[in-house]
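Figure 6 in text form: structure in, sequence out.
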């Protein structure tokens, strides 16, 4: 038993590690493909620090979902051998508990997404402040920025209250079958024994029924508590998919208002070589310019006014180009 449990835990940990590694690689890949102007409110830091971690934590028990269904079926069959039709009483209690828990789980999914969005907003502002800490201190904005971040944290905590309340209701609903099922089962058993079979409930039969009811309610608790966790994973996957769509839109849609031409170097191999070997031979058949911009304009957001206007730029293949003066980072970000 211990060996099988250890093997199951090992395989589950490997599965979660692969899922998290794949998702982190996907977020990194889409981050490198997407431009700053095409990114929405979702950030890579929030996805890797919050959504992917929640997916990994909840996926550790994903196999308990189908295993609980099998355990419930076996427990009901064993209970039927002891109390006959009274075995349906805990089933009715379980179905009622699950039917109430389904809308609670859906509401918890929405509440968690709203909470994560607030966390993401606070992290985005905090990261921006840390990146520009020198300017914040020089302008004397430390107190103002600190108050702003504290207010964002208060809004985040206020938003999380809804999710935590729904989580408490989920725990209460998951515990109901364990507390109510024995009472309902024995009540139905007594009624059947007195008015149908004209018998009595034996002591050994009662203790066996209690043990089987506990065997039935334990997987039910796991099943009910896993439902909102899996729905939370669905919400996290939706956020990752939304983030991946930014890069896809950037690749399929127009890059900017002007005319630009980029060579596709994604599939080429890159290695460190001496400069004279890295320079390609000049011939008429080789493309002369690897980047060419004519009258192009760029903005940090598509709804904002472009900060770079009417840019004309040509970079020859194999040449070493230096960017000097102001707005160097803006130009490099625009060429991504």
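Output sequence:
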């Amino acid at each position: 038993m211990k060996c099988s449990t250890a093997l199951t835990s090992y395989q589950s940990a490997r599965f979660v590690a692969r899922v998290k590694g794949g998702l982190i690689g996907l977020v990194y890949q889409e981050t490198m493909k997407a431009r700053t102007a095409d990114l929405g409110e979702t950030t890579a830091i929030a996805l890797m620090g919050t959504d992917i971690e929640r997916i990994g934590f909840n996926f550790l028990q994903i196999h308990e979902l189908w295993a609980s269904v099998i355990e419930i079926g076996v427990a009901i069959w064993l209970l039927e051998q002891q109390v006959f039709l009274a075995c349906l009483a805990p089933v009715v209690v379980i179905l009622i508990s699950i039917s109430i828990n389904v809308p609670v789980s859906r509401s918890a999914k929405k509440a968690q997404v709203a909470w994560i969005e607030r966390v993401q907003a606070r992290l985005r502002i905090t990261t921006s402040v840390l990146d520009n800490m020198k300017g914040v201190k020089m302008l004397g904005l430390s107190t103002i920025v600190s108050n702003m971040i504290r207010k964002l944290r208060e809004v985040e905590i206020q938003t999380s209250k809804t999710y935590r309340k729904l989580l408490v209701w989920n725990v209460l609903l998951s515990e109901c079958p364990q507390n109510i099922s024995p009472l309902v089962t024995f009540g139905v058993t007594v009624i059947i024994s007195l008015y149908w079979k004209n018998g009595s409930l034996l002591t050994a039969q009662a203790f066996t029924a209690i043990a089987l009811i506990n065997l039935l309610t334990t997987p039910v608790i796991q099943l009910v508590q896993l439902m909102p966790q899996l729905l939370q994973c669905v919400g996290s996957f939706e956020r990752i998919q939304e983030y991946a769509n930014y890069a896809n839109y950037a690749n399929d849609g127009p890059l900017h208002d002007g005319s630009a031409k980029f060579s596709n170097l994604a599939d080429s191999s890159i290695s460190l070589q001496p400069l004279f070997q890295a320079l390609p031979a000049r011939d008429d058949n080789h493309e002369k310019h690897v980047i060419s911009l004519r009258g192009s304009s760029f903005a940090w957001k598509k709804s904002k006014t472009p900060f770079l206007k009417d840019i004309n730029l040509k970079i020859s293949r194999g040449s070493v180009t230096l960017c000097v003066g102001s707005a160097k980072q803006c130009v490099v970000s625009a060429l991504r």
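Caption detail: Residues 253-286 have pLDDT under 50 and may be disordered.
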